Amino acid sequence: MRRRLLGLLVLLPLLAGCFAPSPPRIEAHEGIEEAFRVPLPVPTDASGGWTLVNRRLGIIGQDRVAAKIDEDGKVLWRTTLPAEFALTGRAGRPQAVATPSSSGITLVGAASSGRLPPLATLDSVTGSVTKLAAPSVRPPGKLRFVTVISTTANPGQAVAATCLPGATCTVTAWDTSTGLVLWKHRTRGPAVFADPCNQEGERDGVAGRWACDPLTFVADGRLVLLRRGEDRLRSRPVDLPRGDIGQVIPTLYRVLVMTAPHGPGCRAQAAAYDLTTESPTPVWRRNFTWDQPQAALHEGCRRDPSIPLLMAYRLTLPDAAGALVGSYYDGKFPLRLKPGEYPVADAGRVFACRGDGSYRDPKPMPSQIRQRHPKELGSTARELGQGAWYVPGRGRKGEIIAVDVYGEITWRRATNGTPFFLTDNRLVYAYGSNLIAIRASD
User: Fold this and answer.
1) Calpha distance 256→308 (Å, rounded)
2) Which residue of 148, 255, 272, 279 has the smallest Cβ count within 10 Å?
3) How far apart are CA 333 and CA 138, in angstroms?
């Protein structure tokens, strides 16, 4: 029986001394083949990846270089970006955001003092860069959020949020062709914003990927959203959990709000609000004692906001008595892990991992359909989709390992950084001076 690549890949850190200086070319073998191997069209960053990766459009970018590749590795165009739009990947520096259509990508430049950041579009067909207009005056405060939206009335509209420390925030929308301010929204107190959509205008999470709303935040006892395709904020009063709001997490049907734990006690509360009604009452709420065994102490509690709470179609509440794993939709948590364990998703299932790297299956399937979880899969593995995983090693070093349904390794391959899927059927990564793609053979 042929073993397929997609759905059987596990990406692991490369152990010291195992880094092959020149790996052999992958031939068609066991259902695996090399789709292309071409010179790197865009240099990588220090981790072996790129600041800009849009797999749907096939565009990658780093520093002042961006390029588009097709599924055969052909470079369709290569563009040198203006210095103010260099893609650095550093906090507070330029970054790429998605445009609402499939025609290109919006680049967010470095903002000068007293002004909102410059914007430009990177055309996906030609690679040309077109600068957009911005307002001449920036509201006071630190820039917290920038996105670009499209509506029937205004196909080019940008929205930015600036906030004073622990105080009011101002959300400003403007026409990107003229720089004319279209509307402003000012909060009375601090606001907590959800993470922005990814570079493809989607959100990754419990239901795979979906087109997400450009802006979601909580302020002044209200839930505020800028819905996809709309040009005005929607605001409604909600019964928020008591305490400081720590995280706002949009899902397909709910908006989750988490309070930030503080020691001693580390008590926290989660509440979920329906996106289809205007009810101020949460659909469900849950109190718990926040404890993430894999996190460092923060204000007296083990907490790391960068650790995702949504995985494998499930929500995790990191409770000290054992992490609760269940439904974000109705707030039912049928699975509780043991104290000191934390969940890691694997192809729709959840495994309980421990600090020493060991793991267990808290809800094993019947033996006749059970799929082994490879012991080589470390506890820091990150799922990329279609059964592929990535575990960062030191610097650029990493390894791709193909594992069959019995947990047996069929082959392994060294990489220089984080891989990504191009057009959903090619796993692309950098190695040395080459860009390599592997795929399942016919």
Assistant:
1) 13
2) 279
3) 45
